[in-house]
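Worked example 2:
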Amino acid sequence: MNLKIAIQGIRGSNHHQVAREYFGDAVDLVECMSFHGLVDQLLDSKADKGVMAIENSIAGSIIPNYALVYANNLHIIGEHYLNIHHNLMGLKDQSINEIVEVRSHPMALLQCREFLKTKPHIKMVEDVDTAETAKQIHEKQLKGIAAIAPKVAADLYELDIIMPEIQTIKNNSTRFIIVKTKNKELPKNEINKASLRFVTDHKRGSLATVLNVMSDCNLNLTKIQSLPIIETPWKYAFFVDVTFDAYDNFNKAKSLLEIMSEDFRVLGEYKNARI
């Protein structure tokens, strides 16, 4: 029986590409039009695992997804980095001059802004998903409309790539996390990265003290992101990623951080995908 993998978007999206690269082709995709919908599929046991974008090398963190992972008690069991390639595509035998409108996810439009500025005759329209636009163009045979999407979408929906690689910065990568409702995945000797969430008090130097503990335990801080605690104005939670060579070092740090910080939680322990 195939694993059921929830993705944000549809076949042909970057989330689909990550699912293929991480799990292989022998999976059943559960297509979701939002990250909230993805989480619901996991919580309702309609999907075994989910693929969720968490940060981009250009646009930064997708902050609401940190809150989704925490609030729904999901566990990060892995990560995957995908180089992003944005291609302008439409129905066959159309030139760039015949395109009057381009539709895509807001992030894709943002990352192709410099190219689109050189084509002032093309109207930009935000859509829910890169591949969804490509699918609509194919199904409705929309002439004069283009999508910005991965190459796999052009293959799936029989579109021509009118202009390839139109992203402003060519070295554009997105980090995706693999999430599920339970955390038991890897033996400790294979774990060398973790995601944590904690709250510090208002005393001066509280955050610095916590970070010093991580350093003293030989943890390498690779990411720190603050997020307001809605119920408590002007108080912030910190989401942190750390890497380490020895799980014992991480275990020691966990014991200390549980004492030194408030509402400490390990969001996931997994294998560093950048090694």
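DSSP finds nine helices and 15 strands in the chain. The longest strand covers residues 75-83.
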